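Researcher: Please predict.
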Amino acid sequence: MGTKVSTMLAPLWQGLPPVDPAAISGAVTWTLRPQYESVRGARQFTRETLQRWNMDELFDSVALVVSELVTNALRHAAPEPGELVEGAAYEEAHRAADAAPPKLHLIRWAGRLVCAVRDSSDASPVEGEADFSAESGRGLYLVDSFSDSWGWHRLEDAAHGKVVWALFQLPQIPAQAAASQAS
């Protein structure tokens, strides 16, 4: 598990301390259905995962970021069969129509939590100007505001696709509290 996660997200580790696959203390993946109801499911998956990892206090920020990343992936992933796609999106959507469905990955290790969403689109994420009167266009601004850092890279193991990730620094547990949790 750790080696596969490290390989898939290798560019993510650039600029971070080296990650030994054995140091990854948790990694889960959830495959998204190509429908907007998947955003709610991704939040629930995130809640359950953070509860299992005793990280409930991070849920609000992490869920907001997961919602934005999943929404973007669903918006830019391949269409459902028979779905009408117009304009510039037509060629890309049909080129990626046989690609793997979007996936949400949650990975924790050594004081960090990474939320990564993999999709079949080659389009780079574009951080628009934050217009708070608009109904959309603030997603990456929110990701940037609520996470400690974020980025993306094209997939090396697929003909098309990318991974967009957000990193959260985990709160430090004082030594005394850590010792009491261990017993």
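Model: The radius of gyration is 17 Å.
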